[in-house]
Design brief:
The protein is built from 5 helices and no strands. It is an all-alpha fold. The longest helix has 15 residues.
Amino acid sequence: ALRGADQGAESNLVAALLNAPETGKAAPKMGAQQALRLFLSASLLRLPPAPGREGKTEVAPAPTVDLPLPALLGHAARMARQLPLPDRRALLEAAETLGDDPEAKDGGRLSADL
């Protein structure tokens, strides 16, 4: 497991990759498994950091970045019929978790997709 600055750097790298224009252009051409992985990666960035051994958070939360959640969710949902049942359940769970996050739904960006 990554700690401290390494975890923040990795989160920033994943966010930059998800927001890259190349990723946006390639996303509609991706298969169901790839679309699911992209969406799950973006949704994991929205989760708060896990507490440390003493019950305290070891690192500060990564800065909130504007992730392309609606586009990734929409593409994964369109491709859901091509996913095996466990992957569909993972997609549903991640979408429901984001639906409970007021920051993800801020401004109605995500609410129409859920």
